[in-house]
Structure formats: C-alpha cells, structure tokens
Specification:
This protein is an alpha/beta fold. Helices cover 34% and strands 21% of the residues. β1, α1 and β2 form a beta-alpha-beta unit. The chain is globular, with a radius of gyration of 18 Å. The mean pLDDT is 94.
Length: 255
C-alpha cells in the first residue's frame, strides 16, 4: 500500500454497500471525508443509475469542490463520470454496437437455458442492456440479497455460464460480475481497464493508488486490479470497509 495514496478506488456492491442497496449514512460520510483528502473512485459492473441511487443520492450536503473529487466508473470503466456544479457530467461512454449487443444477448440466454440456469422465479429483468455492457442477472435485477446469496454460494454456476458464453463470443469479454451476474463488454474491459482510465484521466500513477474490494480472489471480478500490481485491500463487506477507512483517514492530510 502506498504510504499516502493519492487516489483510493472502491468496488461498490458488498464493498461500499450490500448488493443493489444504498450506502449506509456512516459510509456516505466517510466517502466525503475521504474526498476532502484524496481522489475517490468507484468502479463497478453496475450502470450509472445504480451509482446514483446507491451512492450519489445518499451523500450528505458537501461543497462542489469536495464532490469534484469523486470519480464514477460504471460498467467497469467503459463509462466515466465526474460530479460537477450541475450534477453528474460525462467524461466518456464507450457503447457496444447493435450487432455486439444482439449476439451477446442471444448467447447468454441460450447458454443459461441449456445449462438449466434460466430461472422461472425472478425479481425484475434477467437481461439488461447497459449500453457499454450486457448483464445477465440469474434472479433478476431486483432480487433480494438472501436469494442472491443462496443461489450460487461457491460461484460454480456463474463460472460455468461464463465459460460457455465466452466460447461463443471470442471477440468480446465475458466475466463473472456480482453474486449472480455475468457481464459482457468489449475485449480487455475489466476493473484493471478502469484503473488505467483513472490514471489517464487524473494523471495519478497506478503506484500511488489503492483499490478496496471484496472479490480479490482469482475468480473474483476485483482480481484483475490485484493482478496488474495495484496495491489492494481486501474486505468482507461494507462494515469492514468503514472500519478500514476510519483507521486510514487520520493518516491522510487534508487537501
């Protein structure tokens, strides 16, 4: 870990908040305290609407200067946003083509049905077009946390589906996402891509960054950041992240 990181990036679900849930007020305050000291980024496979509802709309009142140090990277960095004086501002957004989307949607549905992973009881849409990413959520986008946790506790179902879909889409990136999801993007897109985009956009070297996530195991969607050599801190949930930040913040000088 850098002695004094200049940028700290976070996974979202199960790192800053329970899956698809809003951040706790304690975490919201900690994120703003951190942004008053260093650059703060959130990188997740989720879409921008998820970032809004889970994080941005839950933040306490803060100065425009503090908010300007929050970087939002939905869909693993294929989209990049900052919070400006007029709200969320687009830095870039790299969408899939219509052909790529249609092939991805067909492949993931057909393989899920073939493998017996297309569930009848769901909460919301199973397939979602996020512009720069196609996402399969086995139990639907709004599934309750307990159902998601119970569906695939070892990750075996999700990994089997990922491998089957990847074999059909060699020109696209297929990877395990959240607890019940598989994400499809352009090749080379993962959270390491997001970290490189952060380095390019902020001019902060990767060696001065720290990444915090709950899935840093080799099959986890945070692992590419660890594999690229960025300093990482593993957590087991948002409370663990909050405790880590409460210890770290006093060591970081105010901006």
């Amino acid at each position: 870990m850098p002695q004094t990181p200049k940028l700290i990036a976070f996974d979202l679900d199960d790192t800053l908040a329970p899956s698809k849930s809003p951040v706790d007020p304690r975490m919201a305050r900690l994120l703003l305290d951190l942004a008053s000291r260093v650059e703060v980024a959130i990188i997740s496979g989720g879409q921008l609407a998820q970032f809004r509802s889970q994080v941005v709309e839950r933040l306490p009142d803060a100065s425009p200067d503090t908010l300007s140090h929050l970087q939002l990277l939905p869909t693993c960095g294929t989209q990049y946003y900052r919070i400006g004086a007029d709200g969320i501002e687009t830095v870039y957004a790299h969408a899939l083509t219509d052909d790529e989307k249609s092939r991805a949607l067909a492949a993931v549905e057909e393989e899920a049905r073939r493998l017996g992973l297309w569930e009848e009881t769901t909460w919301g849409e199973i397939l979602e077009d996020r512009g720069s990413q196609i996402t399969f959520s086995a139990l639907g986008q709004q599934a309750p946390l307990d159902a998601k946790t119970a569906w695939d506790p070892t990750g075996a179902k999700k990994n089997t589906l990922r491998e089957a879909v990847a074999a059909r889409l060699p020109d696209l990136e297929v990877r395990s996402g959240g607890s019940t999801s598989v994400d499809i993007t352009h090749r080379g897109i993962d959270k390491a891509y997001g970290m490189r985009q952060l380095a390019e956009q902020t001019s902060i070297p990767l060696e001065d960054m720290l990444f915090v996530g709950d899935r840093l195991d080799p099959d986890g969607n945070d692992y590419p950041v660890l594999a690229m050599g960025v300093a990482c801190h593993a957590v087991t949930g948002w409370e663990d992240t909050a405790a880590f930040l409460e210890d770290l913040l006093p060591t970081l000088p105010p901006r």
